């Protein structure tokens, strides 16, 4: 039992402190449980969206590869020609943080720098197929960025959900039961202490009553003996101290008789 509770001295203050801690733990458990449910719903929605995006990715990548094959057939091998004339990237990916259900997740955005290379396409044959190939791969790039954001969000949300579930289980199975066991232990100890105090008080009262009964019996016996001996009932009880007021100095002077006055009276 001692292993399933916190070390605490049984007192009223400790009981109040553990009641406050238990109330806070239950409130935290409720909030974490709501957060866990919200994270679970968000993870399920993210999984569904990832599944849909991956299904779209198969079709879009197939279309992009077929467009590249058509452009190569019409314009020849144009990859090296375009790569050598590109000075800077026309599309970049930017990162940003979003707060979803209290969890910061990483999101990716497509950024167009404006440095397009459309001027070099269409000069020779196959310009239309090259532009179609570019548009197809641009759509595939948008979908890839979206998929990367979804997968990153899923990983972070899943990790946050696991941490939250561990905290919920710890509060539900370890912390709150130990707090409740500690409160029960303190309450039982206080009740036992109160019973001991009550028992001790009863013993003291019983002893005083017994002593009072003995004293009353002795007094009644002494009164009976005194009545048999002819002592007045209003006489003080033997051993009773009678307080008498001391005479004043003036009373002593009035009671004093001068010896010379007695001698004069004699002659």
Entry summary:
With 267 residues, the protein is mainly α. The protein has helices at residues 12-75, 79-85, 127-229, 249-255, 259-266, and strands at residues 91-100, 103-112.
Throw out a few tags for this protein:
single chain, 267 residues, mainly alpha, Helix Hairpins, two-stranded antiparallel sheet, 5 helices, 7% strand, rod-shaped
Count the beta strands.
2
End-to-end span in angstroms?
A: 110 Å
Order of helices and strands: HHEEHHH
Largest sheet: 2 strands, antiparallel
Name given to the CATH architecture of one domain: Orthogonal Bundle
Morphology: rod-shaped
CATH class category name of one domain: Mainly Alpha
**Helix proportion range:** over 70%
The CATH topology label of one domain is: Helix Hairpins
Instruction: Indicate the radius of gyration in whole angstroms.
Output: 52 Å
- Uncertain segments are 262-267
Strand order of the largest sheet: 1-2
* Oligomer classification: single chain
Average pLDDT, to the nearest integer? 79
Work out the strand percent.
Answer: 5-15%
Report on this model:
The structure is a single chain. The chain is mainly alpha-helical. The chain has a domain at 6-183: Helix Hairpins (Orthogonal Bundle). Helix content is 71%, strand content 7%. The protein has 5 helices and 2 strands, in the order ααββααα. Helix 1 runs antiparallel to helix 3. It is rod-shaped, with a radius of gyration of 52 Å.
Topology, element by element:
Layout: H1 12-75, H2 79-85, E1 91-100, E2 103-112, H3 127-229, H4 249-255, H5 259-266
Antiparallel strand pairs: 1-2
């Amino acid at each position: 039992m001692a292993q399933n509770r916190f070390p605490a001295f049984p007192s009223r203050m400790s009981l109040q402190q553990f009641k406050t801690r238990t109330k806070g733990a239950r409130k935290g458990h409720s909030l974490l449980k709501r957060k866990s449910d919200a994270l679970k719903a968000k993870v399920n929605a993210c999984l569904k969206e990832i599944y849909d995006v991956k299904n779209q990715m198969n079709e879009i990548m197939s279309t992009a590869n077929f467009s590249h094959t058509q452009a190569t057939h019409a314009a020849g091998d144009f990859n090296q020609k375009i790569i050598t004339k590109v000075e800077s990237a026309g599309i970049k990916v930017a990162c940003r943080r979003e707060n979803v259900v209290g969890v910061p997740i990483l999101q990716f955005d497509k950024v167009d720098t404006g440095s397009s290379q459309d001027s070099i396409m269409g000069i020779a044959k196959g310009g239309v197929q090259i532009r179609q190939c570019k548009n197809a791969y641009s759509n595939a790039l948008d979908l890839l960025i979206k998929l990367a954001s979804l997968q990153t969000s899923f990983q972070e949300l899943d990790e946050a959900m696991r941490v939250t579930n561990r905290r919920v289980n710890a509060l539900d199975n370890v912390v709150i039961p130990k707090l409740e066991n500690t409160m029960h232990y303190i309450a039982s100890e206080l009740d036992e202490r109160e019973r001991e105090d009550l028992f001790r008080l009863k013993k003291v009262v019983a002893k005083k009553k017994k002593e009072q009964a003995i004293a009353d019996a002795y007094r009644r016996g002494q009164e009976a003996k005194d009545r048999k001996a002819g002592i007045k009932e209003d006489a003080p009880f033997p051993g009773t101290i009678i307080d008498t007021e001391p005479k004043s100095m003036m009373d002593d002077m009035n009671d004093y008789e001068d010896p010379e006055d007695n001698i004069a009276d004699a002659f």
